[in-house]
Amino acid sequence: MACLIAFGCKEKPHFGDKSLLISENGRYLTTGNGEPFFWLGDTGWLLFSKLNREEANTYLEDRKQKGFNVIQVMVLHEVPSVNVYGDSSIINKDVSKPAITEGNDFKDIKAYDFWDHVDYIIDLAEKKGIYMALVPVWGTNVKEKRVNVPQAKIYAEFLAKRYREKSNIIWLNGGDIKGSDGLEVWNAIGETLRANDPNHLITFHPRGRTASSTWFHKASWNDFDMIQSGHRRYDQDTSAKETLHYGEDNWKYIETDYKLKPTKPTIDGEPSYEGIPQGLHDTIEPRWTDADVRRYGYWSVFAGAFGYTYGNNAVMQMYKLTDKKPAYGPKAPWTTEINAAGATQMKHLKDLMLSHSYFDRIPDQTLIAGKNGDQYERVIGTRGEEFAMLYTYTGKNFSVQMGKIDGDEVKASWFDPRTGKTISIGTFENKGIKEFNPPGEPKNGNDWVLVLEKI
User: Fold this and answer.
1) Rounded CA gap, 88 and 114, in Å?
2) Which of 71, 198, 371, 399 has its Cα between 20 and 30 A from that of 219?
3) 373 Cβ partners below 8 Å, 6+ apart?
C-alpha cells in the first residue's frame, strides 16, 4: 500500500511517479517522485454522458494543450444516467446495480456499455497526463432520497474496485451539496472508497458558498478540503445564516481552511464560471468574464490554495446547439467556448506558481503595508524564502513592506495574468516600505502580479 502522506513514506508509491500525494507540510500535492503538482482543473461535468469518443478526444486534447491537468466530471448526473450512445448506467434506478454487458468492443453495440465508455475516456485522459476527479453520484440524487446507505456502499465498492488500478483517478464525493444533506450516505461513500481504494485521493465537492471542511475536515477518508465559492456577486450573497457571507471574496474560504487542524490542503473547486449569468438563474444578468475567473484564481492560490478549478458555462454542460433545454443560457456551443479567453489564460497562473520554489510558499498579508482595500481593491500576498508575489485586480498603486524575503536587494517585475509575460521594473533595497505603480490606468480587470525576487 502506498502512503497518502508523503512525509515518512519510504516505499515506492503505488502508481510510481503518477501517484498524487499530500506534501510533507500538508499544504500541497506532489507526484510520486516528489515534484510539485499544481492542480489546474476544468469542470467537464457532463463529459461522460454528453460526448462521444471523438468529441471526448477533442475536449481532452484541448485541455491538455491549455495546461489543464484535472477534469472534474460526474459519473452519475442523474439516477439513472444515459450516455450519448443511449446506454443506461444502472438497472431499475438502483445505483447498486450497474448495467454491465460482457465485453467492451466499441464495434459491438451490445458489448460497449455506459461503463466501457467511462473506461475509454479515463484511459484517454491518462494518456494525455490528465487526472479525472470523479463524482460518484451528484448531490441532488442523494438529497431527493434516490440513494440510500446500503445502495451507496455497494455502488462505491463497485467504483473503487473498477478504478483503483487506474493511475489518474481522484474521488470527488458529494456534488454541489451540503454535507448535512445525506450525511450518512456521503460518509458511507467516502469510507467505502477509502477501504477499497487506499491509493487515490478523496475530497468532497460542496454546495455553493460552503466548504467541505464544515462537515468532513476530520473525516478519516478525506484527504484535502474543497470549497465552492459559487456564482453570486457581493450583493447577491443572501445565504441563510448558517452559511458564510463572503460574496466574491473566495480567498476568505481558503484563509479559513488554512487555519484548521489537522493541516490539510484546500482548493476552490468551483468559483464563478466564465460566461455564466451572475447569480446563475437570471439570464438577463451580466455574465462573469475572463477577468473574474483570473481574480478568483489568483486570490485563492495566493491565499494558500494548492491549485484552482476553472469553469465555463457551455463547457461544463457540454452544450450543443441541438440541446433543447440548456442550463443558464449558454451563448455558444462547447466546441467554441473551449477557447474562451479565461480558459487560455489559466495556464499562466500554473506556470507562475511552478516557476518559483514551491513547498515553502505561504500566504502573507503582512507584505501589504498600510491599510489594504476591500472587495475588488483587496491586494493578496504570498511568498517563499526568496520570492514574494502580490496580486492586484484593479491595478491601483499599493505599498509593500520590504524585508519579508531573503536578500539585501530584490529585483522586481510585473507579471501579466492575461499573457503570462513579465515586465522588469528594476532593483530595490530590501527594507522599508516601497510603493509600486502597476502598468495602465486603474480599473477592474487591470490585474497584475508584482513579483519580488532575491538577487
Assistant:
1) 6
2) 71
3) 379, 394, 396
Encode pLDDT of 365-414 as tens digits.
Answer: 999 999 999 999 999 999 999 999 999 999 999 999 999 999 999 999 99
Per-residue pLDDT of 56-109, as tens digits, reads: 999 999 999 999 999 999 999 999 999 999 999 999 999 999 999 999 999 998
With b for 16 or more beta-carbon neighbours within 10 A and e for fewer, the 165-183 pattern comes to ebbbbbbbbbbbbbbebbe
Site of grid cell 484548521: 260
Is omega for the bond preceding 262 within 30 degrees of 0, making it cis?
Answer: yes
3-state helix, strand, coil split of the chain in percent (to 5) is 25, 25, 50
Residue 423 to residue 442: CA distance in whole angstroms: 17
For 119-254, strand residue ranges (E) read: 131-137, 169-177, 202-206, 210-211, 225-228
Q: Which long-range contacts (CB under 8 A, 24 or more apart) does 19-22 make?
A: 19/167, 19/199, 20/131, 20/170, 20/200, 20/201, 22/201, 22/223, 22/224, 22/264, 22/265
Contact yes or no for 436/401 (Cβ under 8 A): no
Asked if omega into 326 is within 30° of 0 (cis), the reply is: no
* Residue 105 belongs to domain with CATH number: 3.20.20.80
- pTM value is 0.96
Return all residues near 48 (Cβ < 8 A) that are at least 6 apart. 73, 74, 75, 81, 83, 117, 118, 121
Hey, what's the cell of 52? Answer: 462521444
Which 3-state string (H, E, C) describes 247-292? CCCHHHHHHHHHCCCCCCCEEECCCCCECCECCCCCCCCCECCHHH
Which domain-ending residue is among 354, 379, 396? 354
DSSP bridge partners of 309:
41
Q: Of 354, 387, 415, which marks where a domain is finished? A: 354
Give 265's contacts (C-beta < 8 A, 6+ positions apart).
22, 23, 26, 27, 28, 29, 223, 224, 225, 305, 306
pLDDT digits (tens, 9 = 90+) for 266-306: 999 999 999 999 999 999 999 999 999 999 999 999 999 99
Any residues with CB less than 8 A from the CB of 44 and at least 6 apart, and which?
59, 63, 71, 72, 73, 315, 316, 318
Domain with 390 in it: 364-454
Is residue 99 within 8 A of residue 113, CB to CB? The reply is: yes
**Are 139 and 265 part of one and the same domain?**
yes
User: CA 144 to CA 162: how far, in whole Å?
Assistant: 27
The grid coordinates of residue 216 equal 468532513
**Environment class of residue 137 by beta-carbon count within 10 Å: exposed (0-12), middle (13-18) or buried (19+)?**
buried
Tally of domains in the chain: 2
